[in-house]
């Protein structure tokens, strides 16, 4: 399996509008962060996209991605789903809609906000065939599991994907580590984890919490993502313990 990190930034990206880099060195290319999204790929070349970030078109172009086999959504916050229209191009050469998966709450909200994507409109075809997560546990050559995670006052879905004897976990946008999360993620080869900033935050994991989840899950490798303008890449590289990688846009890792 392979992880491709399309985006590694928080909801405003780095730099923020106004060219605000915060504590991030603007001369370090890996500090330029678009909104979070990943692709997992198996040995057969099948790809699952997780979240349709606001920067999806630019991310797909930057990484020469022109095909996906399924899409999953963690939740309906704008930075994780408002790039959904960029999936239209992925539908052009298909005879049927792209399989999509989300929780019941997220599915309902996506359908209200982007009805044309899931129903077709004015002669245009349906782009995504959206299914609830509980209905299937195999898709596009991957098996998967999922768990609901606290995200402040709401919840967010964490995913575990397995193929070719390897596993990749995507756990972004959570504010508490639960026993259910640890059970779902235990022993994963790669844990991609929320790491907004160093100081605690009411709706996101901070640095110490991100490292703690990797330790509790016994992840072989932990990769930090969803970082804000306080998280300078080089400084973080000097801080992280062994087995932890500071994520960046375009990062590729083999599980």
Automatic annotation (TrEMBL):
Hydrolase in keyword set: yes
Swiss-Prot/TrEMBL keywords: Hydrolase
Domain Metallo-beta-lactamase stretches: 47-227
Pfam families: Lactamase_B_2
Keyword Cell membrane listed: no
CDD domains the UniProt entry points to: metallo-hydrolase-like_MBL-fold (cd16279)
InterPro entries, alphabetized: Metallo-B-lactamas (IPR001279), RibonucZ/Hydroxyglut_hydro (IPR036866)
Molecular functions per Gene Ontology: hydrolase activity
Protein name, UniProt field: MBL fold metallo-hydrolase
Organism from which the protein derives: Qipengyuania soli
């Amino acid at each position: 399996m392979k992880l491709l990190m399309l985006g590694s930034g928080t909801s405003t990206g780095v730099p923020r509008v106004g060219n605000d880099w915060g504590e991030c060195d603007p001369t370090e290319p890996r500090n330029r962060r678009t909104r979070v999204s990943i692709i997992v790929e198996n040995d057969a070349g099948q790809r699952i996209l997780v979240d349709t970030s606001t920067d999806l078109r630019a991310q797909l172009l930057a990484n020469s991605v022109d095909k996906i086999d399924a899409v999953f959504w963690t939740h309906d916050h704008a930075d994780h789903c408002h790039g959904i229209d960029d999936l239209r191009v992925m539908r052009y050469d298909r005879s049927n809609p792209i399989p999509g998966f989300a929780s019941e709450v997220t599915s309902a909200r996506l359908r209200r906000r982007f009805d044309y994507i899931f129903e077709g409109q004015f002669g245009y075809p349906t782009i995504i065939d959206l299914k609830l997560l509980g209905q299937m546990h195999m898709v596009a050559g991957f098996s998967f599991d999922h768990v609901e995670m606290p995200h402040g006052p709401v919840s967010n879905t964490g995913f575990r994907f397995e193929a070719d004897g390897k596993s990749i976990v995507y756990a972004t946008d959570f504010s508490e580590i639960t026993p259910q999360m640890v059970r779902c993620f235990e022993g994963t080869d790669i844990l991609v984890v929320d790491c907004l900033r160093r100081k605690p935050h009411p709706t996101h994991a901070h640095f110490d919490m991100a490292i703690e989840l990797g330790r509790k899950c016994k992840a072989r490798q932990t990769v930090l993502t969803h970082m804000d303008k306080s998280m300078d890449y080089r400084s973080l590289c000097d801080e992280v313990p062994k087995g932890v990688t500071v994520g960046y846009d375009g990062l590729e890792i083999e599980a």
